[in-house]
Specification:
282 residues; single chain; SalK; HTH_67; mainly alpha
């Protein structure tokens, strides 16, 4: 379900409309806009809180953007900017006719039901987004619902990483090795130094989870699978609430929309989330 619907939310960070909206507010560079758009539901959060909840960013990487981002504009203005940017991007790429059609309205209704069923106890990012007003147009309802659902899943993923004893940079090392991401690129995108990365590899190797080069051992692959299974189990409540038939219907309804996103420049296949479109959308 994450692979099926997450690309609708990812428009927030990949669409040029988002960067342009933040530039108009006065931000400088991609990361200032990223942290402003994603952290805005928390209010004017300090860098320590953003670092804690986002989990895998280096604290100094966050601190270069936060709290300066709140001096540029209020969280409320970032919330308005991201909604307007997503609206503009989806209209440009998908088109008014599709967005206003019955399929998107049906998808939005299912996704909203799932989001409303997502428990937020202990899940700060999900709770912050769930507290926001619902948009009034179906395509934005679909986007907002997936925003709640993906942060709900992400909050649970952090809990799974903590349970597995993987600190932020260790989690990235294991993730990159498991899904085949460019480790150097992921390290740079999250702000960790080569030394910090190498030290994490050494810690993991001492636990028998990687070899000295950072490749996963059998124990490392097993732990990674355990983390993913735990994450999925923690994310299942909303989908169990709507049922398998509705979830499968949501996939079918969103697939044509998601399939349009890469060509429109609002989905980056080379993304640090390791998000790959479902075959039917790709």
């Amino acid at each position: 379900m994450w692979r099926a619907v997450e690309p609708v939310h990812a428009v927030t960070y990949f669409a040029p409309e988002s960067k342009e909206a933040c530039d108009a507010l006065g931000t400088k560079g991609y990361w200032m806009s990223y942290f402003g758009l994603r952290a805005a539901p928390l209010g004017a959060a300090p860098p320590e809180l953003v670092t804690a909840l986002f989990y895998n960013f280096h604290p100094a990487h966050v601190a270069r953007a936060v709290p300066a981002v709140w001096a540029v504009a209020s969280p409320e203005r970032y919330l308005a900017a991201r909604l307007d940017a997503v609206d503009a991007a989806l209209h440009r790429v998908v088109g008014t006719q599709v967005l206003g059609g019955p399929e998107v309205a049906e998808a939005a209704a299912i996704a909203r039901d799932a989001a409303l069923a997502a428990p937020t106890a202990g899940r700060a990012l999900a709770a912050a987004n769930a507290a926001l007003p619902w948009p009034d147009r179906p395509h934005l309802v679909l986007w907002h619902a997936q925003t709640v659902l993906r942060e709900h899943r992400g909050d649970g993923h952090v809990a799974a990483l903590l349970t597995a004893g993987l600190d932020p940079v260790e989690a990235l090392v294991v993730f990159a090795a498991d899904v085949g991401l460019d480790a150097a690129a992921l390290r740079a995108r999250r702000g960790w130094s080569e030394q910090e990365w190498d030290e994490a590899v050494a810690r993991l190797a001492a636990r028998g989870l990687t070899d000295e080069a950072g490749a996963l051992t059998a124990a490392g692959r097993a732990l990674r699978a355990e983390v993913e299974a735990h994450t999925d189990a923690l994310a299942d409540v909303p989908w169990a609430a709507v049922g398998d038939d509705a979830a499968e219907r949501l996939v079918a309804l969103t697939t044509p929309v998601v399939a349009m996103l890469p060509a429109g420049g609002v989905f980056n296949a080379d993304n640090p989330m390791g998000l790959r479109l479902l075959p039917e959308a790709g």
